[in-house]
Design brief:
Elements (H helix, E strand, L loop, with lengths): L5 E7 L18 H9 L1 E3 L2 E2 L5 H10 L23 E2 L7 H7 L3 E6 L18 E4 L20 E4 L2 E5 L6 H15 L5 E6 L11 H4 L5 H23 L6 E7 L24 H4 L3 E4 L8 E3 L3 E2 L3 H8 L16 H5 L12 E5 L2 E7 L2 E10 L2 E10 L15 H17 L16 E2 L18 H4 L4
Parallel strand pairs: 1-9, 1-10, 2-12, 3-13, 5-6, 5-9
Antiparallel strand pairs: 2-11, 4-18, 6-7, 7-8, 10-11, 14-15, 15-16, 16-17
Helix pairs in contact: 4-6
Protein name: Sulfatase
InterPro entries: Alkaline_phosphatase_core_sf, Sulfatase, Sulfatase_CS, Sulfatase_N
Family: Belongs to the sulfatase family.
């Protein structure tokens, strides 16, 4: 019996649809990621289940819409903050849990952002090994905002091993840790979830990437991601594991696109919005002898599909005691042409606990728009994404038939998954994890030799 495949899931932070060469960038140099696309399949209509970090990551790991797992009920905002009392419920089954139970060695190296209390850490959610930041890299102490955050913790397992780490070398440290993990587990199947800190602000990047970037610090961060991709691939090849490893490359949501150098082109919108630029992201899958090289898939698929698809690849099954919203996307991954059908009857664009838009086929209906700063307004916008990927021509008035068709889909989604504006609680909704008396992982000590000034500097 052939050995089950290793799995390397590379998840970038705030990387835009147009930030990679294989997705159209002419300013960022990404030969390693482009090579993945040439060796595998590039997905053009791939979505995260949210346009911001925490719910996006929780959905990807559990195969469920954020609302299904309570990831719309955070105390302060749409994402988790240091010392919050909530996180991914201990009873949730993640990709890590599923594969670990199936005999895989599992590691998460990089950003977690699904809760920083002990009950919520990666080690409680199926990962044998954890090394990284428990939340976003901007949630750090700064001179400019001394009371904003506690010192940023770098963790190994459930212990803080460093406070305010130098982010300019952190990706290199992540790669070193990943190489060690792969070497130690070369003789057994493993799942490595590599979660980048780039290109989330602040853009703190090694000088060697800044020297060669044609797109300032942002381009340097993208090219650092590319270097890491090349390094991980080279190690897999050195170990003789490359051709029996599924490599997935994606991003947790779209780019901020606010002057730093990111691009969601040709899509409209930004991170934290439900225009395509906020939630449609790059996705590449390489798996020799299974995923045809140099192919493209334009069928709608999502990160919620990773759990059931990887379960099938590992010869195990998704949990059967709960609703999983994702689908086994193996037929899309393995199709030799671009003629496989999407497994989704409809896809719902949530902002917290409200459905703001719905897509069915190539048609997309917006009912509510996030304008920034937490402000949302009602709208009536209908787009045919098959000929208007940039959402520029509103067909709401001219296609009442499509409006009604998508409204019916919206009503069904509201009934089954929930929508607070319409008083729909949803069905089979699971609770958010909560603890009493939460404590931050670190406490500021004025005598500690922190790196703080670097976090106050301009990008770069």
């Amino acid at each position: 019996m052939s050995r089950r495949p290793n799995i390397l899931l590379i998840n970038c932070d705030d990387l835009g649809y147009g930030d990679l060469g294989c997705y159209g960038s002419t300013v960022n140099q990404t030969p390693a990621v482009d090579r993945l696309a040439a060796d595998g399949k590039r997905f053009t209509d791939f979505y995260m289940a949210s346009s911001v970090c925490t719910p996006s990551r929780g959905a990807m790991l559990t195969g469920c819409y954020p609302r299904r797992i309570g990831f719309t009920e955070f105390d302060r905002a749409g994402v988790l903050f240091p010392g919050d009392s909530c996180g991914l419920h201990p009873d949730e089954i993640t990709i890590g849990t599923l594969l670990n139970d199936a005999g895989y060695a599992t590691a998460l190296i990089g950003k977690w952002h699904c809760g920083d209390q002990p009950e919520f850490l990666p080690t409680r959610h199926g990962f044998d090994h954890y090394y990284g930041l428990p939340y976003s890299n901007d949630m750090a102490r700064r001179h400019a905002n001394p009371d904003g955050y506690v010192p940023l913790p770098l963790m190994r397992g459930e212990e803080v091993i460093q406070q305010q780490p130098d982010q300019t070398s952190l990706t290199e440290r992540y790669v070193e840790e990943s190489i060690t993990f792969m070497r130690e587990h070369r003789d057994e199947p493993f799942f490595l979830y590599f979660a980048h800190l780039h290109v989330h602000l602040p853009l703190l990047v090694s000088e060697r990437f800044l020297k060669t970037s044609q797109n300032g610090p942002y381009g340097a961060a993208v090219e650092c991601i590319d270097w890491a991709t090349a390094s991980l691939r080279a190690e897999l090849e050195s170990l003789g594991l490359l051709d029996n490893t599924i490599i997935i490359f994606t991003s947790d949501n779209g780019s901020r696109v606010s002057g730093e150098g990111g691009s969601n082109a040709p899509l409209r919108g930004t991170k934290a919005q439900n225009y395509e630029g906020g939630i449609r992201v790059p996705c590449i899958v390489r798996w020799p002898d299974h995923v045809p090289a140099g192919t493209t898939c334009s069928a709608l698929t999502t990160a919620m599909d990773f759990l059931p698809t990887l379960a099938a690849a590992a010869n195990t099954k998704p949990p059967e005691d709960r609703v999983i919203d994702g689908h086994d996307a193996t037929p899309l991954w393995t199709a030799p042409g671009d003629d496989a059908d999407s497994p989704y009857e409809a896809f719902f664009y949530y902002r917290r606990d409200e459905i703001h838009a719905v897509r069915k086929g190539s048609w997309k209906l917006h009912l509510r728009i996030h304008e920034g700063g937490g402000r949302c307004t009602d709208c009536q916008e209908l787009y045919d994404l098959s000929r208007d990927i940039g959402e520029t021509e509103n067909l709401f008035e001219s296609r009442p038939d499509k409006v009604e068709e998508l409204m019916n889909a919206f009503r069904q989604g509201a009934k089954t998954i929930g929508d607070s504006r319409n008083g729909e609680p949803g069905q089979d909704i699971r609770p958010l994890g909560r603890v009493n008396n939460p404590k931050p992982l670190t406490v500021y000590d004025p005598e500690h030799p922190y790196i703080i000034a670097l976090y106050d500097g301009k990008a770069g």
